[in-house]
Every structure is written in C-alpha cells, then in structure tokens.
Amino acid sequence: MRHAGVSSPRLAFEYWLVAYRRNWKGSLLTSFLSPILFLAAMGLGLGSLVDTQVGSGPDLGGLNYLDFLAPGLLAGNAMMLAVNESTYPVLGGFKWYRTYLAMAASPLRDRDILLGHFAYMGFRVGLASFVFLAVMAAFGAVSSPLAVLAPVCATLCGLAFATPTTAFVATRTNADNFSTFTRFVIMPMFLFSGIFYPVSQLPVGLEQIAWLTPVWHGVRMCRALTTGHDLGWEMGGHAAYLVVLTLVGALVSSRTFSRRLYE
31 to each of 18, 103, 130, 160, 164, how far by Cα in Å? Predict the structure, then answer.
C-alpha cells in the first residue's frame, strides 16, 4: 500500500551519501587509479605511436592523440560508472538488501526514493568526472578554461544511461542479464562511439548508429570543452539530446520502479 508521505528526495539521497562515506575507499580504483592507467597506457603509450605515425592530422581535428582521447575517456568513464551504479545497486535495493522496501515503509514516496537515488548516481558520476578532469590536467590534456564544465556534461551523459538502465533493472528478478547487457550493449558503445578514433572512420551505417548513442554526444561535448575546438550551436543539440534521454528514462523508471516496489 502506498503511503501518503511527504516529498523529500533529499532524505533518500542522504542515505546513499552516508553509505558512500563509509565505503568510499573502494571507489578509489575506478575514480582515480583507472584514469591514470588509461591515460598513461593509451594516451601516452599508444598516443606517442599515433602522433609519430599520423601526427595532429585532420582526422583528429588537429589534436594530438592524448588531447583527443582524454575527453573521450572522460565521457566513457561516466557511462560505465553510471551503468554500474544503476544495475546491481538497484536490483540489490529490491532483492538482496531491500533498501527500497525499508524506505517505502517510511513516509517517503516512491518518487522520493527514485529521485534520491538518481541524485546520488549523478553525484557519484560527477565526483569521479571531476577527479578524471584533474588527472587529465596533470597529464597536460586540458587546453581550455571551459574544461571545468566538462564533468557536468559527463554527468549528464551518465544520467542519460542511468535512468533508462534503472527502468530496465526494475523489471528484472535476477542479475543474469547484466553481463550480457554490458558485453553487447555498453562495450560496443564504449568502443565505437568516437572515444578512441573519429566515428567518420567507421562504415557509413555504423557511423550513423554511433550518432544515436548517448556516449557519442557526451564525447563530443567533453572534447569541445577541454580543447576549445568545435564550440558552437551543436553543443546545445548534444545537451538537449542527453536531457531528453534522461527525462524519458526517468519517466519510464517511475513506472517500472513503482510497480516493482508495490507489487
């Protein structure tokens, strides 16, 4: 039975924040060490070979490979973290830890619980993205003062994945499909959405599919902001696309989440 309740997503957000404060050390690998390893291996290691053989050619927009790759990894890392935060923790809230059920027994309403968790997902992705940007700056991969806005765009990219993923996970009774989802949906986006090379290098059909992926829009925005290149009206289009996906995912989530919570 639904509670009359009060609207207070902040309380649900604070629960997740307190839990994170107790376990934040476990996120150091994904939030700090992984960016260093990725940028060192791909940006400096592979990048030195690319720059030697190709140089800062038109295919890379006149950028060296580190400057091209780093903002792409920023958006890609936001996508991966958002998916991680919206799969097992969401299912656990229903099935294993029953966090959502405990919250539902309080005056919190279903939308408070959901919005509070979305706010926490945005916080996690945003925090990791600012750390990633700091690592990029340490590697010399930031050349525009507008780069400070790149983590905001990366967070929006992450939420464009988190909300529809939550809608999907709320319909699952077990985690059997999560690895398949990651392997055949998320990883192809990570590999073929312009993070490591321009999508113009793909066959025409795959290039057009890449344009539809949220991470491509996130990559374009982050790359423009960290390099100062290609700043124009397209930025508004990319942002609008991600906002629409986030809102649609949130609306669908509200239905699947509520149905699962009170079934």
Answer: 18, 28, 9, 19, 23
Instruction: List, in sequence order, every residue forming a beta bridge with 42; answer none if it has no partner.
Output: none
Cα 95 from Cα 43, distance rounded (Å): 41
Is 260:239 a contact under the CB 8 Å cutoff? no
Give the C-alpha separation, 27 to 32, whole Å: 8
CA gyration radius for the chain? 19
Maximum alpha-carbon separation in the chain: 65
Burial of 129 (0-12, 13-18, 19+ CB in 10 A): buried
CB 67 within 8 A of CB 165: no
| Neighbouring residues of 9: CB distance < 8 A, sequence distance ≥ 6 | 111, 112, 113, 115, 116, 119
Per residue of the chain (263 residues), give pLDDT as tens.
444 445 589 999 999 999 999 888 877 776 677 777 878 787 677 766 776 566 555 667 778 888 999 999 999 999 999 999 999 999 999 999 999 999 999 989 999 999 999 999 999 999 999 999 998 998 889 999 999 999 999 999 999 999 999 999 999 999 998 999 999 999 999 999 999 989 999 999 999 999 999 999 999 999 999 999 888 889 999 999 999 999 999 999 999 999 999 87
